[in-house]
Amino acid sequence: GAGVSQSPSNKVTEKGKDVELRCDPISGHTALYWYRQSLGQGLEFLIYFQGNSAPDKSGLPSDRFSAERTGGSVSTLTIQRTQQEDSAVYLCASSFSGASYNSPLHFGNGTRLTVT
Amino acid sequence: KQEVTQIPAALSVPEGENLVLNCSFTDSAIYNLQWFRQDPGKGLTSLLLIQSSQREQTSGRLNASLDKSSGRSTLYIAASQPGDSATYLCAVEWRSQGNLIFGKGTKLSVKP
């Protein structure tokens, strides 16, 4: 079946603009994760959705970042008033059951965001 | 603080060699440990998942081991091939939180 789909694959925006990044998880996967990968850095956790539970937002770096997951499926990560330090690859992943159920994560190919 | 460390950061070997990648983590109260592969410009591909109750997992030429008491995991790649060239990442899911913490990866280059 189809894997995790992210759009756009590349996004160039001017400093101060808002951007929306989209993630379509694998059908039936209840858990959805957003990570950020900067050049030379590891993956930085941003936010985690599990079913109908309140999301774990502990990794969001500032209040300019927010995410939604509508209908338990598609997720949108929004960055307001983008800054140059927001430039990175934003990766989305989904899994069948999420934390503690030992389900492997399936990643999309990411959105490369460049803030000029 | 829960951290995952991978050593070395980069490794270059000739084709055909067996090799070991290392991962260490703080705090042994884990749910599982996962190994991923990342090719340039791509997302991550799950290779192996070891549950906290397991000692090792095998898939083809790959074997991952887990020693919770010492906070270590190794990924063994047998008879390496140029197609194995990629960055290998280790990630740990701890009982106290719902997300995976990743190491910074080991960039492997297998020379023909």
Uncertain ranges of chain A: none
Structural class of chain A: mainly beta
Q: Largest inter-chain interface?
A: A-B, 25 and 25 residues
Q: Distance between termini of chain B?
A: 41 Å
Number of E-type strands of chain A = 10
Let me know the number of strands of chain B. Answer: 11
Oligomer: heterodimer
Report the helical percentage of chain B.
Answer: under 10%
Question: First CA to last CA of chain A: what distance?
Answer: 37 Å
Q: Quick one: overall form of chain A?
A: globular
Provide the residue-averaged pLDDT of chain A: 92
Radius of gyration of chain B (CA) equals 13 Å
The topology string of helices and strands of chain B comes to EEEEEEEEEEE
Tell me the helix content of chain A.
under 10%
Provide the residue-averaged pLDDT of chain B. 94
User: What percent strand of chain A?
Assistant: over 45%
Largest sheet of chain A: 6 strands, mixed
Give unreliable regions of chain B as ranges: none
Question: Could you walk me through the main structural features you see in this protein, from its secondary elements to its overall organization?
Answer:
The complex is a heterodimer of chains A (116) and B (112). By secondary structure, chain A is mainly beta. Chain A has strands at residues 5-7, 10-13, 19-24, 31-37, 43-50, 65-69, 75-79, 88-95, 106-107, 111-115. In chain A, the strands form two sheets. In chain A, strands 2, 4, 5, 8, 9 and 10 form a six-stranded mixed β-sheet that branches. Chain B is mostly beta strands and 112 residues long. Chain B is 0% helix and 60% strand. Chain B has strands at 4-7, 10-14, 19-25, 30-38, 44-51, 56-59, 62-67, 72-77, 86-94, 100-102, 106-111. In chain B, the strands form two sheets. In chain B, strands 2, 4, 5, 9, 10 and 11 form a six-stranded mixed β-sheet that branches. In chain B, strand 4 and strand 5 form a beta hairpin. Chain B is globular and about 45 Å long. The model of chain B has no long low-confidence stretch (mean pLDDT 94). The chains are: A mainly beta (116), B mainly beta (112). The A-B interface holds A 4, 33, 35, 41-43, 45, 48, 50, 56, 58-59, 91, 93, 98-100, 102, 104-110 and B 31-32, 34, 36, 41-46, 49, 51, 89, 91, 93, 95, 97-105.
